Structure prediction request, 404 residues.
Amino acid sequence: MRKQTADFNLVRNINKSIVLNKIATNEPISRADIARITKLNPATVANIVKELMKDDLVREIGKGESNGGKCPILLALNPQSFCQVGVHIVDRIAGGVVDLKGNTLSYIEYQFNKEEKLEIDLVIKSIYEAIEESGISLEKVKGIGIGVTGLINSSSGIVEFAPNIGWENVHLKNILEEEFNIPVYIDNDVKATAIGELWFGVAQGKRNFIVFDIGSGIGSALVIEGKIYRGANGRAGEIGHTFLRYNPIRCKCGNYGCLETFVNDKIIIEKIKSEIRTGGKSLILDLIDNIENITLETIFDAVRKNDTLTNKIIQNMGEDLGLVIANTINTLDPELIILNGYLTTIAGDLLIPIIQQSIRKHIFGKTVKIPEIIVGKLCYLPKCIGPAALVLQKEFSYLKKEIP
Ligand SMILES: [Zn+2]
Prediction:
């Protein structure tokens, strides 16, 4: 008997997930259309919709056109029935409350001293503040998602090694679950961005893609058959530490010649400064009063004015990136490459053609189709959205069937 009840509940839950998925992906939709698409009995659909409305997950939003009979009532997902907190911890704490459709209901940022260990209390404070500012009660928050720079064990929720914030083996999931008493999901920040792109960004409906995050280093997230590929030890994706060619600058990993010692936010600025100091001529000197004031923006302003020196440096950087991306394409055959990070936000249009050219030069099979390369949508959205999607992926996976 017990087995039968369990099976009955399982089928009921599966049907509930199917109905909710159809509403989320086809809204506004009538009960009759749900029954037609899902091939479920109309009475079953009506009962499930009743339950979903009771749970406040679904609401009636008006009437559709008549097919001869009564006008059907249209249903839609209530995006604020449940919300999630997302916190992005990289060069600052960026937290916010995000609803089921990826709308940000609140957003706060905290700077911290990068020379000192980050206080966990500041993370807790940012979560309380984000919830308070959103006007949503804690009961409506389904979970907390945290995207942290560094090596993260996503199943245990332990931040194993995050040198940028001075953390080693921090049991962040346990600490936050004890504080807030709701599920907490922790992942590396770039992996969280990949999940965010899958839910709300340019990777919706994609199964195989790679996110390259270019900042002070280069991180990546590999999505294979709709799932983040983690590898045997959870360390897959360290593309920034791919050997490119010898470089006297030592990488933070201890090796020499890693990609990220050739391509990162700071190195571009340093290279241009050093070329100018040794007599290099550049239009950039017309744009600033002091060489120390060179920024990524002024560099790309100069590139857009056809400045030879800055153009050469950006060209070399794009070629190096393209070479490593070509190797990755040869290995994984993705359908899409997403570039993430501030640099690509301000100069993606300049970098992408150089990267494409370099890929074409280095890829196996000169006539094969190169995957599309685009700047991620999350680059332009509040940083809390990727981490918040970690909660959606675990708690609301049935809203998007392609996500396991
Ligand atoms: Zn390295």
About this structure: Residues 2-77 form a domain with the Arc Repressor Mutant, subunit A fold (CATH 1.10.10.10). Residues 241, 251, 253, 255, 258 surround zinc ion (CB under 6 Å). The chain has twelve helices and 16 strands. The longest strand covers residues 141-148.
